[in-house]
Amino acid sequence: MAKRGGGFIGQDGINAPDPATGVTGTAGDEQVDVSFTSPSDVGGAAVTEYRVTDSTGAHSATGSASPITVTGLTNGTSYTFNVWAINPFGWSAPSGASSGVTPEQLQRGLFGGGRQSPTNTISYVTIPTAGNAIDFGDLSNLSYSLAACSSATRGVFGGGYYNTATIEYVTIATTGDSTDFGDLTAGRDYLAACSSSTRGVFAGDSTIDYITIASTGNATDFGDLNVTAFGLTGCSSPTRGLYSGGSPLTNTIQYITIASTGNALDFGDLSVALMRAGSCSSSTRGLVAGGTTSSGEINNIQYVTIASKGNALDFGDLTVARRDLAACSSSTRGVFGGGFSTTATIDYVAIASTGNASDFGDLAQAQRELAACSSAHGGLS
């Protein structure tokens, strides 16, 4: 019989189970997976259920075996957890508490499409770590020179060659193939996208469209670019979107206020006229990397402070000079993947600093003219 010294008042403490042991937690996005070792002495009957409760008492979950997922937690807050074993005679005493566990926003970057033998492949990386990209699923069609944007939960891919208007989406925390979202106001390729936590904005040629990321449906007219261009690149803070470079070859940086509508305005200039670069951001700083100039492909990374206006400053260099790359980011790290001359290289930088990029890993295959987005980019916080 159980040796833990009795259950709660009003229960058969002798026949109730011993507590679970070895309680640990694995952080997720607004959740923690709580693992434990079941008691060897279950009392007078088999354990029918385990109950997990956090240190505040506000969140609990039940299950028949380890691990048990506790949801509804606040990212950035530390929690400890206790486990109770339950059989028909009653509850065990609580287990020893786990160490503190802090849920955090999923920091996953997606790379989709590409032109090295046109592909519909989507792959993903975990931005705070380093390593090779992993298969996620497929877009509905072979696609390249497309654009991507995202909320914390959903990635959206739009446009592409040959002048398609298709928009499709995936749920970033899972894996699987894309689902139809709707259409852009006009089919186009070599476009760029940026997003806040709720709205995605696609721009190319002269047209700017927007969508509400959490819904589905066709895009709505937002306004026009200040300088007509394709092959430009986009990034954002929570309030402001930037579009940089493009063809006809330009050094222009343009900006929009994402929550409104209207034409783009002049922000400043890149250090050199370029097109087909990659761009990503924290909530305060935007980066533009690589691209091609009148002299050929470059490895330079430039940066701006998004809340202000002004010309770009030198940040450092990519590990490989290239154009037609894609970029995604967390709130602290920028990740650049693929590019022409066709490469599988993935680089990363710490956005708040300056300096040359470091090797992150590789895409599953060399790829160019792909698109990227993430669940933790600067437009979210």
What's the short version?
This protein has 381 residues and is an all-beta fold.
The radius of gyration over CA amounts to 25 Å
What percent of residues are in strands? over 45%
CATH architecture of the largest domain: 6 Propeller
Form type: elongated
Helix content: under 10%
How would you explain this protein's 3D organization?
There is one protein chain. The chain is mainly beta. It contains no helices and 32 strands. It has strands at residues 21-27, 31-37, 49-54, 60-63, 68-71, 81-87, 90-91, 108-112, 121-126, 134-138, 147-150, 154-158, 166-171, 179-183, 192-195, 199-212, 220-229, 233-236, 240-244, 250-257, 265-274, 278-281, 285-289, 292-293, 296-297, 300-305, 313-317, 326-329, 333-337, 343-350, 358-367, 371-374. The strands form 9 sheets. A 4-stranded antiparallel β-sheet has the order 4-3-6-7, with no helix packed on it. A 4-stranded antiparallel β-sheet has the order 10-9-8-32, with no helix packed on it. Strands 11-12-13-14 form a 4-stranded antiparallel β-sheet, with no helix packed on it. β26 (300-305) and β27 (313-317) form a beta hairpin. The protein is elongated. The model is unreliable at 1-6 (pLDDT under 50).
